[in-house]
Amino acid sequence: MYEHEHYRMNDFQAAVALHRQGRLDEAEHHYRAALVAFPNEPDVLYGLGHICSQTGRADEAAYRFEQVLAARPGHAGALIGLAEALEASGRQQAAIGRLEQFIEAEPHNAAVHFVYGRLLKQVGRFDESREALIRAVALNPGNPTFHYMLAESARFTANDTRLIALEALTRDEQHFSGRQRAELHFALFKAYDELERCDEAFAHLAEGNRIYRALVPYEENGVNAFFRGLKETYTAKAMTPFAGAGHPSEVPIFVVGMPRSGTTLVEQILASHPDVHGAGELQYVRDLIDGDFAGPDYPAGLAELGREGLRRFGGYYAVRLAALAPGAKRIVDKLPANFRHLGLLHLAMPRARLIHVVRDACDTCFSCYTQLFASGLNYAYDLGELGRYYRAAEALMSHWRTVLPGESLLQIRYERLIADFETEARRLVAFCGLDWNEACLRFYETRRAVRTKSEFQVRRPIYTSSIGRWRRYEHWLGPLLQALD
């Protein structure tokens, strides 16, 4: 081996070590250096693919995993990485097709069946999803994550074998990671809740939340300071000089609110309209803010950002959004947390529609507390923190309603939508500047991938069973109720 190849192999070893430590930028530098000497080395490409996935670059991640599979067609890890990258970019059907090809040739890989089942659930193929997850559990019965996903696939009944398996796993839970232990307890909450054994259900729910809260960072004072900075910067007086400065696109619709407030249902109604594309929970706004497109001191620095900066922000966002569905008149970005940025979004795209979905505070917060989210919602695992976050978000939305023009911001109340569905659906569609279409009433028939925790609910007609659900557990919710009071 030549001397430079020895050097580049050291780059690869350094990349692996740094990757394990979570130092992603440094790891990527060394992976790319190693790639100079070994451009077709599967291990280098595989590591780089994971770095790209972890940093939100799904297209390059897919490309790198494809390179690995070209060299090693049976590489299950690269196939899973490819499927997850395709999922992240909204290409679930392509991911499902690749997994089906692999399963036909290699039917005994539990992890591939698991990812296959998860993707089938997103596209509404629930029976097939459940079968795939059953297969994953059968192939690897000791994996709590597989059991957790299977637990979410259908309601529990008395003597359910899934419950028996979950209870058996908890007897050895000290051997599992923190995330896996939390998954076990969230799954057991679902089982006991559906069996109406509320004491046991809440005990597991509280334990699952306690475990996961210890794993994730959450700085409440920092969140409050950020919200305060938004209200101090984006005042009516400060925003007036920038009216109309942004990009003129009418394509974006932002659906925002607390998680579990009904945002996915609102998106599904709109996405059922033939002129609307539902893009799901996009990270584009966050990417632009992280890239300093809103200024290095955001939320401060509106004056320094100026009219040109606002138009640049809106232009970058609008072009990237339109590329998802070039023929659509409107495209929905349903990232609930974008409620924080409505002042910026209105100035950057003054013709965008902003829709805020509101649900009963106790129902919203309790529903959040019952979910183990993929990432990011770190305020949701402690009842007191959750209640205080809800009130802080509510206060920020009150501020936006004061400073934003009424024609740009529509509030949809979940309970009113459920009670008078057609009236509210028509109001929603009209606000978006679209002609009414009857398909919006049959939103549950719309075939599209849904990646949120509401993937089952939006495939069903309107129902009322989730209203007031928190009351079954009111006895245990003291810290939440106190925070909300």
From TrEMBL:
InterPro entries associated with the record: P-loop_NTPase (IPR027417), TPR-like_helical_dom_sf (IPR011990), TPR_rpt (IPR019734), TPST-like (IPR026634)
Keyword hit for Transferase: yes
Keywords: TPR repeat, Transferase
Record bears the keyword Transmembrane helix: no
TPR repeat positions: 42-75, 110-143
Protein name as annotated: Tetratricopeptide repeat-containing sulfotransferase family protein
Species in which this protein is naturally found: Rhizomicrobium electricum
Lineage: Bacteria, Pseudomonadati, Pseudomonadota, Alphaproteobacteria, Micropepsales
